[in-house]
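Translate sequence into structure tokens.
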Amino acid sequence: EPYIAQLRNWINEQKEPAGFDRIGEAGFVMVDHSWKKVNLRKSYAQPVIIAGGVSNRGGQAAFARVSNVTPNSFEVKVEEWACMDKRHLVEQINYLVVEAGRHELTNGKILEAGILVEVNHEWKTENFSEAFPSTPVVMAQIISNEQEGVNIRLNHSQVNTNRLSLKIQNAERGDLSKE
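Result follows.
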């Protein structure tokens, strides 16, 4: 519970834990349905980007979409599912950037960031590089140059100290209501 509270504060208030700047950064950007470039404070060998959730402003189902990741920038926009009008009001999107790998934070907590290349519409189980001492908090983000809107789903009942389970979610395939 204290870790979840710290993570929530970090995302909501962009308060990075002491020493975090050696492996990553956090921030926010105001963005709508148009791509917006985010320049990072430093350069990364293999940046892992997580864009925060989208509110229900405007009433349409939407998600934060990330694309064109480079060592020192990425692009983000709010994307509505294909069945919506594809225009969205301006949102504040929080983001987290971490160098890929396994890192120990100054408070002793372990943070692992990685990139999976092949995920499809079937549940895929992926092992962590090492087991965690307890079940970790898992965040995931689709990064794609595809035209079709997709999002990522985590099967939290399958997350444990050794692995996670995830798949792509797509409105046009009818995946929105499936578990």
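Note: The longest strand covers residues 62-70.
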